[in-house]
Design a protein that fits this description.
This protein is of the alpha/beta class. It has 14 helices and twelve strands. Strands 2-1-3-4-5-11 form a six-stranded parallel beta sheet.
């Protein structure tokens, strides 16, 4: 049975209005009172009735999250960065009284409509696109969409959309400092999909810039962000020619690690291996893999900044960080 705000108010010895102010992060109650009420909320497992709240406010608070280029194979979803990001995001979004609706381009049960049509059909307040490519034909129609706020992640379209970019520059800079400290002179890089402007092309430019600065020779091997491509490169790469391998995501790094194991190549003694995304799995496998991390907390905070300002188009840059293991 659902616990009500009135019941929480009774337990806390305060009014219904005081509890409402705390739950909606409104000024008024003291910090001590906020902590008391929130402790009771956690203890009783209170979940707000979002549908009722939206009816009272006469507004729609549904956020659509579009998971594009969603892996077809279940094994590849283990390494899909956005799955871990969503675990962090869902709790915060729910706390603030929003309803989440998910869309994946692998869902064959829905009739085929454009993203803009889906936004209108579902009456979305905001649509967040993860994994969108700049060449996607849906972008043109989304530009004209007036009923839904559109937020793009990791795509440089600053004029017509809100965009959040998890900027690889700082993480790659810190990685090259680490490589320099470890006397790395030759680096192999497993790239992502060629067409990915930010997640591949931007990283390549940054790698070239910092490698020249540190006098590290770089050789690029083509990957596609999936485990299998990292494994395939790991099978053919002449590890005697390199001191380290950097994969542009953790999926490819773990693929390369498995290939190295089969070949009897020890990581990190024979060759260092570095990933990107800092998925939880990189800390629990043996050996653990250093990786470049996104700042999920700041990315989520940036989303809420945009949600509160629907009239202005803006771009927010969130720096990455290199994590040693």
């Amino acid at each position: 049975m659902r616990t009500t705000i009135k019941e929480i108010a009774k337990l806390a010895g305060v009014t219904h209005a005081t509890v409402s102010m705390v739950l909606n992060d409104k000024p008024g109650p003291s910090q001590k009172m906020k902590e008391k009420i929130l402790k009771i909320v956690d203890e009783v497992g209170y979940v707000p009735d979002i549908n009722a709240r939206n009816l009272v406010k006469r507004e729609n608070n549904t956020i659509g999250i579009f998971l594009l280029n969603f892996p077809k194979e279940k094994k590849d979803r283990i390494f899909y960065y956005y799955m871990e990001f969503l675990q962090d995001a869902m709790i915060e979004v729910r706390k603030k009284g929003y309803t989440l609706l998910f869309y994946t381009d692998q869902d064959k049960t829905r009739r085929k409509i454009s993203y803009a049509e889906f936004c209108k059909e579902q009456n979305l307040k905001t649509a967040i696109f993860l994994g969108m490519h700049k060449e996607d034909k849906n972008l043109e129609e989304l530009k004209k969409l007036k009923t839904t706020q559109v937020i793009l992640f990791d795509i440089e379209e600053t004029k017509d959309f809100n965009t959040i970019i998890s900027d690889s520059n700082n993480g790659i800079k810190e990685m090259f400092e680490y490589l320099n400290e470890n006397n790395v002179k030759n680096l192999a890089v497993i790239t992502g999909t060629k067409s990915a402007e930010i997640t591949t092309q931007k990283k390549i430019k940054e790698i070239r810039k910092f490698s020249e600065n540190k006098n590290i020779k770089v050789t690029f091997y083509q990957g596609n962000f999936y485990y299998q491509s990292g494994y395939d490169v790991g099978k053919i790469i002449e590890t005697n020619n390199y001191d380290a391998v950097f994969a542009m995501n953790d999926a490819m790094a773990i693929g390369a690690l498995d290939a190295f194991r089969e070949r009897g190549i020890n990581v990190p003694n024979d060759i260092k291996l570095i990933g990107f995304d800092n998925l939880a799995v990189t800390s629990v496998i043996t050996p653990s893999i250093p990786s470049i991390a996104h700042d999920n907390k700041e990315i989520i905070s940036s989303i809420f900044k945009m949600l509160s300002n629907t009239n202005e188009k803006k771009q927010i840059i969130v720096p990455t960080k290199f994590i040693k293991k």
